[in-house]
Design a protein that fits this description.
heterodimer; A: about 425 residues; Rossmann fold; six-stranded parallel beta sheet; 10 helices; 17 strands; about 15% strand; globular; B: about 350 residues; two-stranded antiparallel sheet; 14 helices; 4 strands
């Protein structure tokens, strides 16, 4: 009796499952095809698979910036007659998962190029790359691939410090406006900066931002706090709040989420973002963002792969001039009136080469002008020992390699913690 | 009278025939797959295609099989390490931390003995990892046998300390590029060689499987562990030194976990990460229980989980199904497999008389 009952119950479940499954599958599948374009293979024309290993997903501003560029690159390549299909993996910051992804993308999906969007992924990728010489592996924001002996591993890091400088100019204009209308006094023009780690890329970014701000608002100072993660929405928000409590009237960030922007909005201070425009989530706070536009790089690498051309080992010196670094749309509702002109002036000067972001006459370290700093590490101890970066009156960032190497602690910026 | 009888009563049973037991387990597995189909359907994928993709990806290509084995190595190793503890009814939840400490010890020698020849260096790394893993496991065991502290909580807490130590080392003394919080990769002499394209750790864990099987079934130690697990008083009455057995078994367990840490750090990552154990210390517990503490069954379970892990990443790249969906399905399978043991161990009695009255 019991057995019969059990069998009937089981059957009922199977049938109901099948029914549910059948009902849901069809429309959902359609969505899938429309969304990801995985099934539009045409037999006449090859569709090249291109992989990207991501540290996060579309919920992180950082990763979303890559997807925007990936879509743009796909459209641009399609115009040239090259059809590509992006394949993503998510939430793999380092280690075995990244190696497995590389193996899967190159070995099983036959991707002609695999892009790794975070610094920590490169070592795992380098373990795999030699096995798949036909695939090019790009360690974005890293510096190990161009130095190694493999031809199919490359690096790229557009000159984002230029964009940071311009974003800083926008911040400085806002500070000036606040001083002019009496919201703050000149000595209270404090910028708060949410940093990821005490890492050259971050140091270079906040320093460029600060120098941009100070170029228009001479009394500006900056406090920086590190969170010990590339992206941690809760921690980023808490840190932004902490900076505001420490007197910051404008927040900027080198971290992956938009919570510093929303925190700034909640606390009625202003904000300058990174990676994507954050004006949509914080319309009354976020003025502008700087971002890297990876489109040119993706197009260049994929095109070279398809045509069988040799890849550049390192993507050096691509910034504002080439459109690899851009600003998002200015939030005119809250931006200071003279912002557009100020940005334009600085932008033209940078493009023309008349303005150096790290002009050594514009900053000091321990009260002294910097006259010497090496750029590149050659012996593997991670302390730069080659290539003099300071010449012609400026520290030349991203000149000898694309990955930033400006790691000086300049005067006017106070680090609230250095634990990371 | 009948009103007081619960609708379902349970009674312990131990007489179920082997064939029936396996029928139930198979049934549970199929049941889990059916629920899994529902999950896939909700996620907007063709369930059949999804399952086919999982198994094709994992077993259809050499790279897939290699990844499955790579996934299975730490799971099998951890499950083997935990088996004697669990047989003893000593709840070692600290495998994650013991693995991490093992990996730290291995990394220590990899960093400080850079110029040694490969074989002796790997041996030192292996031994060092076992020693540190063993010590890490001995601490809660010592407290347990001396002051009867709760080993479940103690070993669990030790995990977070170990992971914290690893994170500190990576961001502190062993950090590579300043601020990166990443340790440089080991030099090639500190990396385990590959056999058949997979780090040789798979041979080590297979040998361990036999060793643990023999240890648990045919040695005096194994017998003592079993007696102690059945009843501490019996063990005492038989003149066994209970604290000594607890500590000895815990150290053995920790040492094997430490070795697993060495295999992961040196063989898989080639460097140290703070999450070097990557959850193997916890998933290993499930593997151990699913296998009913049988070392050979652990091989099968570890491989099955390896297949699911590999399948989940391929589902992501092939069908754009989030990897977390496969995690859900893995969870369902594990739950059903563990849950069915209930039906094997207990007989359910429905309130039959009452049902007749209702008619």
């Amino acid at each position: 009796m019991k057995k019969v009952f059990a069998v009937i119950l089981a059957l009922a479940m199977v049938i109901s499952l099948a029914a549910c499954g059948g009902g849901n599958t069809a429309p959902a599948n359609q969505n899938n095809t429309n969304g990801s374009n995985t099934n539009n293979t045409t037999p006449e024309k090859p569709v090249y698979n291109v992989g990207m290993v991501c540290i996060g997903d579309e919920n992180a501003a950082y990763d979303r910036n890559f997807y925007m560029a990936a879509d743009a690159a796909k459209a641009q390549l399609a115009k040239e007659g090259i059809d590509i299909n992006w394949i993503y993996t998510y939430h793999h910051p380092e280690g075995k998962e990244v190696a497995d992804d590389c193996e899967e993308l190159a070995g099983e999906k036959n991707c002609i190029a695999v892009f790794l969007n975070s610094y920590g992924q490169e070592p795992a990728m380098l373990q795999i790359a030699a096995d798949y010489p036909k695939t090019v592996f790009a360690g974005l924001t890293n510096e190990g691939s161009y130095k190694d002996k493999l031809d199919n591993t490359i690096n790229a890091f557009p000159s984002i410090y230029e964009g940071r400088y311009l974003a800083g100019v926008a911040a400085g204009c806002k500070l000036n406006e606040m001083i002019a209308d009496g919201t703050i006094t000149a000595d209270k023009a404090v910028i708060g900066y949410v940093g990821a780690y005490t890492f050259a890329e971050v140091v270079s970014g906040y320093t460029a931002f600060f120098l941009g701000a100070r170029s228009v608002c001479p009394t500006a100072t900056m406090i920086v706090k590190f969170i010990g993660s590339w992206g941690d929405p809760t921690m980023e928000a808490a840190t932004a709040k902490d900076l505001i409590d420490n007197g910051a009237v404008l927040i900027s960030q080198h971290s992956d989420s938009t919570t510093p922007a929303t925190t700034a909005q909640e606390n009625k201070v202003f904000h300058v973002g990174y990676n994507i425009s954050m004006s949509d989530v914080a319309a009354d706070a976020s003025i502008i963002s700087s971002r890297i536009d990876w489109t040119n790089f993706f197009v260049k690498v994929i095109r070279a792969q398809v045509k069988g051309e040799k890849q550049d080992q390192d993507y050096i010196g691509h910034g504002l001039k080439d459109g690899d670094v851009v600003l998002t749309e200015l939030n005119t509702k809250i931006a200071a009136k003279d912002t557009v002109e100020a940005i334009k002036k600085a932008e033209d000067a940078i493009k023309a080469g008349t303005l150096q972001v790290f002009d050594t006459s514009k900053f000091t370290v321990d009260g002294k002008v910097v006259d010497h700093a090496f750029a590149v590490d050659t012996d593997g101890d991670f302390a730069p020992d080659k290539d003099e970066a300071v010449f012609d009156g400026a520290f030349h960032e991203s000149y000898f390699q694309s990955a930033p190497y400006f790691a000086l602690r300049i005067d006017g910026i106070t680090l609230l913690n250095e634990a990371y | 009278m009948h009103e007081k009888t619960p609708l379902i009563r349970l009674s312990k049973r131990e007489d179920m025939p082997k064939a029936r037991v396996w029928m139930i387990r198979l049934g549970a597995f199929i049941f889990a797959l059916l629920i899994g189909m529902l999950v896939f359907a909700v996620a907007g994928a063709d369930p059949i295609e999804a399952y086919v993709t999982i198994f094709k990806a994992a077993l259809g290509k050499t790279t897939g099989i290699r990844q499955v084995v790579r996934n299975a190595i730490p799971l099998l190793g951890t499950a083997l390490a935990l088996a004697p503890c669990f047989r003893m009814r000593y709840w070692n939840i600290g495998a994650e931390g013991q693995i991490t400490m093992g990996a730290i010890a291995a990394s220590f020698f990899a960093v400080h003995c850079r110029n040694m020849a490969s074989l002796p260096l790997l041996l030192i790394m292996g031994v060092g990892s076992m020693v540190l893993g063993g010590i890490w496991s001995l601490i809660p065991a010592l407290f347990k046998s001396r002051w009867r502290t709760n080993e479940t909580l103690f070993t669990l807490m030790m995990n977070y300390i170990a992971i914290g130590i690893a994170a500190w080392l990576i961001g502190g003394p062993w950090e590579g590029k300043p601020g990166s919080q990443i340790m440089p990769v080991f030099s090639s002499n500190a990396v385990l060689p590959k056999v058949l394209g997979i780090q040789c750790g798979w041979i080590i864990v297979l040998v361990l499987t036999v060793v643990i099987f023999v240890y648990m079934r045919y040695t005096k130690h194994g017998y003592e562990v079993q007696v102690l697990g059945e009843s501490e008083n019996t063990a005492r009455y038989a003149g066994m030194n209970v604290p000594k057995i607890i500590m000895r078994t815990a150290v053995l367990s920790g040492a094997i976990c430490g070795l697993v840490g060495f295999l992961i750090a040196s063989g898989t990552h080639g460097t140290l990460y703070s999450n070097v154990a990557g959850g193997a210390g916890f998933t290993g517990i499930t593997v151990c229980w699913l296998a009913q503490l049988n070392p050979f069954a652990m091989i099968v379970i570890a491989l099955l989980l390896g297949v699911l892990t590999k399948g989940s990443s391929t589902l992501q790249t092939s069908m754009a199904i989030p990897a977390s969906i496969t995690d859900i399905i893995t969870g369902i399978i594990l739950l059903c497999m563990l849950g069915c043991e209930f039906f094997i161990n207990y007989r359910m009695h429905f309130r039959e008389n009452h049902a007749k009255e209702a008619k």
